[in-house]
Every structure is written in structure tokens, then in C-alpha cells.
Amino acid sequence: MLILMASPRWSYEAIGPGCHLHPFDVTIKSDRHGTCRGTHVVQACVGYCESSAFPSKYSVLLASSFKHNITSVSQCCTISKMQKIKVRLHCGAIRHEEIEIFTAKSCQCDMCRLSRY
């Protein structure tokens, strides 16, 4: 079992328009006791993407029996490419383990999804 704990390195006031890579610290523990642990900086996708809402076309109103009277169009900031990175876990003074985790490599505004990966 691995436990990931994330610490963002940004403030929301500093994030400008668009969808950008931003670093954050990850602490990885092999178990709840932290028998083996390590930290690494990984990239996240953070930012703002375009969205809009407008009255639905008459054809949409007819097709929905006049229940769908507002049409919304939106995109979300998401990871477009990922890469694996190796993190070294320290298990006491002598023993080490190495694991692979994912980090964002590039970001883009794309269709909003509950979970992409």
C-alpha cells in the first residue's frame, strides 16, 4: 500500500488565465507508519478554461419538450500528456526502494470529465 500526500506550491491568486503546469510536492509512504518514505516534486495542471451558457435553440427546446432551456458549453484544465518518474524511498538508514509515479508533462483545456486516468 502506498500513501500519497500532496502539498501545492502555488496560491490561487497567482494562477493566470489558461491551463498551465504547476509544481507541487508529493510525500510517498509505503504504509501508515512511514516505514519507507520519500518526497518528489511533480507537475499538476492548474488554471482556467472557457465556459459559457446561453438560451437553447428552438430545435433543442422542441426535442427536450421545453425542459432544456439553457445550453452550457465548457472546458476544463486537464493533463494532456503524462510521464513516469522514479522516486527513491528511504527505508531506515540503509535500505532504499524505488517506485514509479506519474507527473503531468503538458496541459490543455479539454472536455470536462469526472476522471481521465
From TrEMBL:
InterPro entries attached to this UniProt entry: Cys_knot_C, Cystine-knot_cytokine, Glyco_hormone, Glyco_Hormone_Alpha
GO biological process: cell surface receptor signaling pathway
Entry's Gene Ontology cellular component terms: extracellular space
Residue ranges occupied by any CTCK domain in the UniProt entry: 19-113
Annotated SUPFAM superfamilies: Cystine-knot cytokines
Compartment(s) where it occurs, according to its Swiss-Prot or TrEMBL record: Secreted
Pfam families from the UniProt entry: Hormone_6
Keyword Disulfide bond: yes
Keywords, ordered alphabetically: Disulfide bond, Glycoprotein, Hormone, Secreted
Single GO MF descriptor: hormone receptor binding
Keyword Thylakoid (UniProt): no
Assembly behavior: Heterodimer of an alpha and a beta chain.
Protein's name according to its UniProt entry: Glycoprotein hormones alpha chain
Organism: Chelydra serpentina (Snapping turtle)
Organism lineage string: Eukaryota, Metazoa, Chordata, Craniata, Vertebrata
